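Q: Give me a protein?
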Amino acid sequence: MAPKKEKNKKYIPGKAKGLKIAISILAVLLVIGGVWAFFAYHDFSPVKAGHYDDTVVATLTYTDEGGREYTRQITYAEVRYYVKQLRLTPNQAIEAIQEDWVPEVMAQMYGISLTAEDKADKENELLEYMGFCGEGNYELVLAGQFMTEALHDRFLYLKYLTARVHSNLCENKESPLIAGADREDIDAFLSNHFYAARHIYVPVGNNAQQTIQQAYHKLVAGESFNTVLEEYNKDTAMTEEGILFVEDAMTEDYFAEVINLQEGELSQVLELESGFFIIERLDPAELLAENYDEAALSYAVDRYYHIYTDLQFDSVVTTEPVFHKIDSSIR
């Protein structure tokens, strides 16, 4: 049946169908144009491994309290390793590299570098690894791990540098973290973190409970702690002067008993898994004075981890436009 003609309008067969086709073609062209513009703007062209290894994809920046700035450029090769070998996302890779950078910044801050022995050990480890890979296979093995020679060398360098930084700052009595601190700050830290005590210990065994009760009754009756200690104690490391310790050095139950005592106060008999104890809490001041250099290292360790955390979370990451291109192609 022929379509109904509208008044004063000439009907042209096929006109409506042609219009729909034209509109469809235009819509397709607009979609294609939009997709082309999106990819052209974001530049998602493939990145070939090797060709872009040295391309800087991000920069780390940290400014210390004195206003000194430290920077570190991150390359494509590094991000590729963390993503391909360690199964991280590119952003997680940046975070991992950011953390690995911390000892390097600390080394710059405190003038620490590898010793001749460190360098020799690093070189020997590299040679051993190359020997393990087999003659001529070193590069192939690295490629299988998505690693370059330069990146492998850097990882070895960071391994030995991290150990050197920790040794110089946390294990050395001449640590700059101690030398550069106020004595009052160190003393306040030590008094807040160190405890002192001495105890009489009887291990689990025949008549253990009876033996510790005898010791306790003698103490209550007024016999000196030193005398009872000498007669009953089975802990060969315990002395009359007592021991100096921090919370993590003791079992939870032992430490809980100590902090519930006043200095000079004697505990009840305490039964733990290893045996029975009678504990006397002491004033740590004398022991701290006698062992000041060793105790001060705990202050250095505490400062080290505070600085480490600040560096890790206060450093700024600036990604380059090419990072988004790699983010797509690296998968």
Observations:
- The first helix runs from residue 15 to 42.
- The chain has a mean pLDDT of 85.
- The chain has two domains: 56-179+306-329, 195-283.
- The chain has 14 helices and seven strands.
